[in-house]
Design brief:
single chain, mainly alpha, two-stranded antiparallel sheet, 10 helices, 2 strands, globular
Length: 246
């Protein structure tokens, strides 16, 4: 029964990611393009804050070696992904171009990032339902802005609202799998967790620096809106973290 509960809760956190795609869909293609610098700034800020959030526990526990090595592997993973996609024409149905490629990169990185979150949920639930419920709420709430980050490049690429929603949910599909594995193999997964957290943080930060920030900043006139998106989203994520930690 407990295992089924963990699995269902992780499915709810995955669906919560889809909620973050809804505001982007409501904006529509024209307004999404108009607010592009701000939206890219939001995506960059959310993913930077999420990366920092991932490494807090390993840093507090002094797990520097697996964290650093995992981070380096994550950066290499992103660079290899960039290189593999650079020479190819990314096409989804009738859509193609740089925004489709960037959508694919964001999806893959957030997909990988969601596995250690699933590990965290399963491990915490095995330690007790009270701490497990706290971690469930934290992950579900933090998944919402990550869904927004998924939907932003998809909106620019021309994907529809339903595609943005389900792609956002899809980025969190590893969470139910990771939660079940961690619940069953809690001690083994605890040893793996700093490696996987470092990997996800490294891949996300590399994505922000190499893909999102250049597009957000762009021409000089875009920089105030991009900065507002970055700072505003990071402050919101920090406020959310403080609220959940209270």
């Amino acid at each position: 029964m407990a295992l089924l509960t963990v699995f269902l809760l992780a499915c709810v956190t995955a669906l919560a990611t889809g909620l973050g795609a809804l505001p982007v869909a409501w904006l529509g293609p024209a307004r999404t393009e108009r607010w592009r610098p701000l939206l890219w700034g939001v995506a960059a800020g959310v993913m930077t804050a999420a990366s920092i959030g991932l490494i807090i526990e390993p840093v507090d526990n002094g797990q520097w070696v697996p964290l650093i090595f995992g981070g380096v592997i994550g950066v290499v993973f992103l660079l290899l992904g960039q290189r593999a996609m650079a020479g190819r024409e990314m096409r989804v149905g009738e859509l193609s171009g740089v925004h489709v490629r960037r959508s694919a990169l964001v999806f893959v990185v957030l997909f990988v990032h969601s596995l250690p979150e699933g590990f965290a949920l399963g491990s915490s639930w095995s330690a007790g339902s009270t701490i497990g419920l706290f971690v469930f709420i934290a992950i579900a709430l933090q998944n919402v802005p990550e869904g927004t980050a998924t939907a932003i490049p998809m909106a620019q690429a021309g994907f529809g609202a339903s595609q943005q929603f389900w792609a956002a949910v899809g980025t969190s599909l590893p969470q139910p799998i990771g939660a079940v594995i961690a619940f069953l193999l809690v001690e083994e997964i605890k040893a793996l967790l700093p490696w996987s957290l470092g990997f996800a943080a490294g891949a996300m930060l590399a994505l922000v620096v190499l893909e999102l920030l250049p597009d957000a900043i762009g021409p000089r006139e875009n920089r105030p809106r991009a900065a507002a998106g970055i700072v505003g989203s990071m402050l919101c994520m920090a406020g959310l973290a403080a609220l959940l930690g209270a």
